[in-house]
Structures are given as C-alpha cells and as structure tokens.
Amino acid sequence: QVQLVESGGGLVQTGESLRLSCAASGRTLSRYAMGWFRQVPGKERAFVGAISWSGGSTYYSDSVKGRFTISRDNAKNTVYLQMNSLKPEDTAVYHCAARVSQIYSGSYHTSVKDYDAWGQGTQVTVSS
Description:
Blueprint: E1 3-7, E2 10-13, E3 18-25, E4 34-39, E5 46-51, E6 58-60, E7 68-73, E8 78-83, E9 92-98, E10 117-118, E11 122-127
Parallel strand pairs: 2-11
Antiparallel strand pairs: 1-3, 3-8, 4-5, 4-9, 5-6, 7-8, 9-10, 9-11
C-alpha cells in the first residue's frame, strides 16, 4: 500500500503563497495519476486539481485555475501544489490522493471516487 503525507500548510494572509507537498512511501507514485482536494467542516471534499502520471496533463477547478499549479517530481516520489494569490475562501484542509487502481493513466481524474489512497491532510488558513 502507498502512504501519502502532506506538508506545507499554514497560516498566511490574502495574496500570499504556499506550496504543499505530498510525499509517498511504500510504493512509487510515478505510475499513478494524482489529485488534490480540499475540505471545510460540514462540506464534502472538493476537487482542486489533478495531474496525469507523467505530468503531461493537468486540470484545475474553476475556483483555483490561474492561481494554483500542480507538478510532480517522480524521482522524489512527491507531488506539489503551488498556491498563489491565496484568498480566504481557499481556507481548508488539503488532501492529496493517488489513483493506484490504474497505472499510467494519461488523463486527469476529478472525482473523489476515482482515487484509492489518501493522505491525512494539511491545514491551510488564509486570513483577510
């Protein structure tokens, strides 16, 4: 099984940036499509962005498009979420996820049910 651990969250002010990391152990991530989701209390986990196994395809929710960027370093077994121009509505727990049921998926996946392995999450708080 793959274990995912997110890091890099914290408290920032509106307009600032953060970079989240998702490191894997137990299995290489290089064959899997990856995604980032976020969740606030009382709401369902929401799609943020996704990346194909090679990094050649990425896709973002409308709410973060143009501000967030997903990348991956397969040699380091890590996926990143660069978040710029942060807004208070970006405040949430951010989770990374791996689609381990399918290797070498060349497309991106936007649904929670598309992913099989999840990290515990890292809190991002944006103050106004």
